[in-house]
Structures are given as structure tokens and as C-alpha cells.
Write a structure and sequence with these properties.
Blueprint: E1 14-15, H1 23-27, E2 28-29, E3 34-35, H2 37-40, E4 45-49, H3 56-60, H4 63-68, E5 70-75, E6 78-83, E7 87-91, H5 111-118, H6 123-127, H7 140-144, H8 152-169, H9 183-189, H10 194-206, H11 211-227, H12 235-243
Parallel strand pairs: 1-4, 4-7
Antiparallel strand pairs: 2-3, 5-6
Helix pairs in contact: 10-12, 11-12
Length: 251
């Protein structure tokens, strides 16, 4: 699939399949099993735009590869396993018309239509997503402002430093980043102080976090601390990680 003048990949892949993709196209398959988009996105990004428009069966099969970081395809003539360690990014509207919760335009969808649309993304799949971020309408004043935000170069420098921290932390292991940590590493590297433990206990009860959600919050808090250059996870880092688990709209 690589062009003749580029026999070796030197950049992480970015795959953005259309929502009409088939099960075999996304996960892999065929009479002679071939890798799907989740394997072609290995060690890169899999971007699913208009997430609820993908078939629900197709979305549900993502659950196991997200956990196992590989996908196994069985056929009568054999079984093949492909790598699938990808970063999943999805984008969706809050409702079919796209204006539920908008500050300026009223939503025209019925409550039932909104619920049905949002329920296309199941709870178990949402539980495997670390960050849920609502992107509101951008006001004219911000769009027309001459004030610039943080440059991409500055952000990249901060990310590189955080990566270096993780490389040093996991030296001599099979781990590559905080996302690769198992519960055993989480207990070792994501130690909370007394104030953070109290916050986490309250959040577990109020947000009804599962065991998977608990570990994902801690790994995200560890990454936030790395980006801030902190050796330990503080209450501020944990609060930010919990904020990304909160749902702006009720799914």
C-alpha cells in the first residue's frame, strides 16, 4: 500500500475512514484476512468523524481491540492476529440537527430523537474513551480577535518533555507511554496524596466510575502531571482528569 518512493513509514499513520465503511474494512477480514483501518492506524490516530453515523455493530467491535491493542480474525482456513494499538478520536454532534445545547439556535429535535441519537454510542464504548470534550459555538469576538493562542511549537515542546519523562519512567520495561500501564503500574506510578484520595473517592461515587474508568482517570492525571512537569499527581491534576470524564450532555 506504500508508494514506490516511500518503502518505509517515517511518520505515524492517520486514518480517517468514512462512516459507510464495512465491518471488514474497519476491523479487517475477507476470505484471506487482511488488516482493517484499526490495524493500518497502529501506533497512530484513528479518526472517526460523525461517530453515531457508523453502524452500532461496527462501533461495538472496537471495544476489544481498544483493550487488547490487537485484533484476531478467525476463518475456516486459519486465524490471524493484527496489531491495533491506535489512538481513537471521535467527533459527533449532540443531536441529529446539531443544535442541542447551543447558546443561540434552538434545537428542533424531539427528546426521543436526541436520546436515540446519543445512545448509538454505548456506555461500555464511552467507558473506554479517556476524554469527553464539548466544543461550544465560537463567538465572533474570538474569531476576529488578533490575539494569538499558544503556538504549536510551544505545545510540541511541552509534549516532547512529557514523552521524555515517560520514556525515563518506563526504561527497561515493555511500556511506551502512560496509556500502556496495567493496573499494577498504575498502583506504582499513580500514587495519590490524602487530598487527592478524598477527591477520587467522592468522584467514584458521584460519577459512578467503573474500575476501568478509575484506572483511566489515574493514567490521564499522570499524563497531565507530566505535561506540567510535576513528579507527583496533585489534586489539581486529578480534578482536571475527572473533568474530562464528565459528560457535557447526557448520553
Amino acid at each position: 500500500m506504500l508508494p514506490s518512493d516511500t518503502p518505509l513509514m517515517r511518520e505515524r499513520p492517520f486514518r480517517s475512514p468514512h462512516h459507510t465503511i464495512s465491518h471488514a474494512g474497519l476491523v479487517g477480514g475477507g476470505n484471506m484476512p487482511h488488516p482493517g483501518e484499526i490495524s493500518l492506524a497502529h501506533r497512530g490516530v484513528l479518526f472517526l468523524d460523525e461517530l453515531p453515523e457508523f453502524g452500532q455493530r461496527i462501533l461495538e467491535v472496537l471495544r476489544q481491540p481498544i483493550e487488547d491493542k490487537r485484533v484476531t480474525i478467525s476463518r475456516a482456513n486459519g486465524t490471524l492476529t493484527f496489531p491495533a494499538n491506535f489512538m481513537l478520536i471521535g467527533a459527533m454532534n449532540p443531536c441529529p440537527c446539531g443544535y442541542y445545547g447551543d447558546s443561540q439556535k434552538q434545537c428542533t429535535c424531539s427528546p426521543g430523537a436526541i436520546t436515540t441519537y446519543q445512545k448509538r454510542i454505548s456506555g461500555p464504548l464511552l467507558d473506554r474513551i479517556d476524554m469527553l470534550v464539548h466544543v461550544p459555538r465560537v463567538e465572533y469576538q474570538k474569531l476576529s480577535s488578533a490575539r494569538l493562542g499558544e503556538s504549536s511549537a510551544d505545545i510540541r515542546e511541552r509534549v516532547v518533555k512529557a514523552r521524555e519523562r515517560q520514556t525515563k519512567r518506563f526504561a527497561g520495561t515493555d511500556l511506551f507511554s502512560n496509556a500502556d500501564m496495567t493496573p499494577a503500574e498504575v498502583r506504582q506510578y499513580c500514587v495519590l496524596d490524602a487530598a487527592s484520595q478524598t477527591l477520587m473517592q467522592v468522584a467514584m461515587r458521584q460519577m459512578q466510575l467503573t474500575a476501568r474508568g478509575y484506572h483511566r482517570v489515574l493514567k490521564l492525571a499522570r499524563t497531565i502531571a507530566d505535561l506540567a512537569g510535576s513528579e507527583s499527581i496533585t489534586q489539581v491534576h486529578l480534578a482536571e482528569a475527572l473533568q474530562y470524564r464528565a459528560k457535557e450532555f447526557e448520553f
